[in-house]
Amino acid sequence: MPVPSDFPHPWLPDQGDGTYLNPVLHADYSDPDVIRVGAEYWMTASSFTATPGLPLLRSTDLVNWELVGHALRQVPHPSYGVVRPGCGVWAPSLREHAGRFWIFFPMPDEGIYATVADHPAGPWEEPWLVQAAVGWIDPCPFWDDDGTAWLFHAYANSRAGKRDRLHVRPMSPDGRRLLGEGVEIVHAPHHPYLEGPKLHKRDGWYYVMAPGGGVPTGWQVAYRSRRITGPYEEKIVLARGTTAINGPHQGAFVDTPAGEWWFLHFQDVGPFGRITHLQPVVWPSGDDWPRVGFLPASDAVGEPVAGAPNALLRPGGPRLAPPTTDEFAAERLGPQWQWQANHDPAWADLSSRPGWLRLAARPVHPEKLELTPHLLSQKFPARRFAVETLVEVAGSVCAGLVVTAGASSACLAVVAGPAGRLLRLRIDNRTVFETPVPEGALRLRVAVEPDGGCRFAHAAATGDVVDLPGRFTAREGGWMGAKVGLFADGVSGHADFDCFRFESDSTPTS
After folding, report:
1. What CATH code is assigned to 19-309?
2. Over the stretch 441-486, which tens digit does the pLDDT of each residue have?
3. What are the residue numbers of the active site?
4. Which residues contact 380 (CB under 8 A, 6 or more apart)?
5. CB burial class (10 A; 0-12, 13-18, 19+) of residue 122?
6. Is the pTM of this model over 0.85?
7. Which of 157, 268, 412, 468 could form a disulfide with 163 if both were Cys (CB 3.0 to 4.6 A apart)?
8. Are 19-309 and 338-503 in the same CATH fold?
9. Which helix (H) or strand (E) is 159 found in, with range?
């Protein structure tokens, strides 16, 4: 939905004049894959153990993105009733074939799964297991002109003991099963941690685009062959070069209706997750290798750009971004919200008190708050922002704001019990501040700084903001950036939240 003009979004890449700034998504949409459907572009991304999973975003210009929904209601395995850091749904591929839309995704401890829909907005079928396997990751399906189907994939070194190989296997045209062992098409020790293969066919060439070198410092490699099973030749087509954009890592090549090409990839920025950049691509005649980003004088390896003109942008057009603020006035939660693991829909109640979100008290993880399935959270949306909520509690409840960050967390909560009410700030399960507070609603706030520092504050419903001592530094973990959200801990009672509002500086930091 368009961002209201009177409420600035924490990060908007569209400059309003036909140009954009990178990143085009300043949020943790890791391992993005994108396809064009007519004049629209659709994206999905990794979701690990969070549910709903496999987000679906839509754009008409590759810069302004709206979050439409998710392809997965739950992670398709019974072990994900608990949080399993670093596991779950890894890098997916989104493709169109035979008038339908397909997402293939890996779960590195369980195997390769797939789901299908008649439209990218869904509904999506319940996923099926294409192949049980341990350590197979980043599957990409491909249906060739002769009707044959293939599945490309890489390996997770942590599970398979391989980190520099790509494999292709024959697949049934209905995408339900594999038909044989296939062949290893790449073994490249000089590109360690080779992963994320995406196949394209162009002018008789099969191109496999894959990142190598690891997430923080790697590069993009293109492989090409006249035969789908190889042999393949290689070329590095995008590297950090002289820019400040580390990586650049896994992503998607996509064309426009006018025949232009673009590359969307992620950049790992620690606690802020894996944010999405957009790079121009050209295919020089007589060369047949893609050139990505700004090319240096050597004309050998592309460099990522900070931003550029984009002919798809409409100067002065509506600026879009995934939602952040939620006033809890609708019948369901906004699509930005996720639980930490497989969830019960009854955990969120928007009908008992219209205009408020009610969370029933449930016991949190006794040692690590971040391992609690029923934390309701969303991605960090910018490098600098603040969040406020208004909370009322009933019964013996501890409820409020939470920041989860890898293997750590911090929370500011109202604690209600027989002896009265307290405001309590805990960092990594250690109480750093506590004070009595009166009955009634209390306003809670957290401000996030560009280095990941989080500072908490509170106020009465109409009072001034009071900063609290203690500073929590958000960190990444389990392949994910930090999140901010809400929780209610206890064995009885509930907490009501009136809103969840984001604020930002007028000039957000990229």
Report:
1. 2.115.10.20
2. 999 999 999 999 999 999 876 678 899 999 999 999 999 999 999 9
3. 31, 195
4. 27, 28, 271, 272, 273, 448, 474, 481, 482, 483, 484
5. middle
6. yes
7. 157
8. no
9. helix 157-160
